[in-house]
Design a protein that fits this description.
4-stranded antiparallel β-sheet, mainly beta, about 110 residues, globular, about 45% strand
């Protein structure tokens, strides 16, 4: 049973932008803190950003000032706006609750390359 569906990934040049989306039919996102995570090739999955139901956001230092997490409760969707992308941002990006309580989705591949 698919619980989380990420979309919006792609190939982008350094300095470019992408917006990822995450939808779920498993939970009502307005009741949960939601997070974005990523896993680069050969590395462990790491936390990127989180957003509480009250709208408090937190970011990993390596994306602070470049990425923005948001949500649309009416659409039961969480977003990650990524600006000023660099080569080190190449990874598969996942969403989940914060902390992660659901089975992981397939993720969205983000490749930053010139």
């Amino acid at each position: 049973q698919v619980q989380l569906v990420e979309s919006g990934g792609g190939l982008v040049q350094p300095g470019g932008s992408l917006r990822l989306s995450c939808t779920t039919s498993r939970i009502t996102v307005s009741r949960y803190s939601m997070g974005w995570y990523r896993q680069a090739p050969g590395k462990q999955r790491e936390w990127v950003a989180a957003d509480t139901p009250g709208g408090i956001t937190n970011y990993a230092d390596f994306v602070k000032g470049r990425f923005t997490i948001s949500r649309d409760n009416a659409k039961n969707t969480v977003y990650l706006q990524m600006n000023s992308l660099n080569l080190e941002d190449t990874a598969v990006y996942y969403c989940n609750t914060q902390p992660a309580l659901l089975s992981w989705g397939q993720g969205a591949q983000v490749t930053v390359s010139s």
